[in-house]
Design goal:
Length: 259
């Protein structure tokens, strides 16, 4: 039994470093918190290197751990210094990141792709991933964003959905090349006089829907590419929905028509 009882322990220092959003962005490893999330990562063939149990007498989990994974027991006080969920989480893991590219997207007869330009908030990205996973989206393309995909907030708010579909960070030019090559119909979500209500659109073939940042929406540079403009009609006093909510609303109509 490998017990960690001091903040000076090397493995504890590694965990603390990876939990830091500033450094984790440039690391090859990241932290997964929670048994459900760890199980989903394993099922999606993420390489998990170390597992950390909370306490010396941890609960049993219905997860098949490889013999190659190192097992550690963190004293409860140390575990709680790191865990966002406090007593609700009993497991932590260190895993290797996956480097997806546009060829990682598995295309079907009718594929749906979500494009997000310059997204800033990890919680929004996590919520989008959870919705996209539930609606069988083929992939997420993140354009011109500095966001750390494996941020702990992304993983937590996605409830492990981050492990279930490819997430690709790229630029506008490469994204458009991919869409043209695979004959995607592109729909830009834009608030303008020329935008059509998303409910009055016929979605057919391969569908790509582009959403802009939380504050500024799609940039003029992205909007310069040929696409149909769609919007969600607002019936209240506010002019827009939260980004993750907007994705869910539009996706539900696309799925209703295509699936």
């Amino acid at each position: 039994m490998k017990v960690i009882s001091s903040t000076h322990n090397t493995n504890f220092k590694i965990l603390r470093k990876l939990y830091s959003n500033k450094t984790n962005k440039n690391e090859k490893e990241f932290v997964i918190e929670g048994s459900k999330e760890i199980d989903l990562a394993l099922k999606s063939n993420f390489e998990i290197k170390r597992i950390f149990f909370r306490g010396l007498n941890p609960l049993k989990f219905d997860i098949n751990f490889s013999d190659k994974i190192q097992i550690f027991y963190l004293k409860k006080k140390l575990f709680d210094l790191l865990s966002y969920r406090n007593n609700s989480s009993k497991l932590l893991a260190i895993a290797n990141k996956k480097n997806y590219n546009l060829n990682s997207i598995c295309l079907k007869k009718k594929s749906i792709i979500i494009i997000i330009e310059n997204i800033e908030k990890p919680g929004n990205l996590g919520a989008i991933l959870r919705t996209a996973d539930g609606m069988d989206v083929s992939g997420i393309i993140i354009v011109d964003s500095k966001i750390n995909i494996y941020n702990s907030n992304v993983i937590r708010s996605s409830v492990g959905s981050i492990f279930n579909l490819p997430i690709i960070k790229t630029n506008k030019e490469e994204a458009i090349k991919f869409l043209n090559k695979n004959k995607f119909n592109l729909f830009n979500t834009v608030i303008s006089k020329s935008s059509k209500n998303y409910l009055n659109i016929n979605y057919s073939g391969n569908i790509a829907i582009a959403f802009g940042s939380e504050n500024k929406g799609l940039s003029d540079n992205w909007k310069s590419y040929p696409a149909k403009q769609i919007c969600i009609k607002m019936n209240g006093k506010n002019d827009s929905f939260n980004l993750s909510v907007s994705v869910g609303i539009v996706l539900s109509e696309v799925i209703r028509q295509t699936k």
